[in-house]
Amino acid sequence: MKKHIPNTITCCNLICGCIAVKLAFQGNHEGCFLFIILGAVFDFFDGFAARLLKVSSPIGKELDSLADCITFGFAPAALIFFFLNEHIGATQPFVPYAAFVLAAFSALRLAKFNLDERQAEGFIGLPTPACALFWASLFYNIGADCRLTTWTANYPLQTAAAVGALLLLSCWILVSEVPMFALKFKSFAWGNNKLRYAFIAASAVILALCGWGGFAPVILLYVILSVLQNIRKQA
Question: For residue 235, what pLDDT is reported?
Answer without folding.
Answer: 64
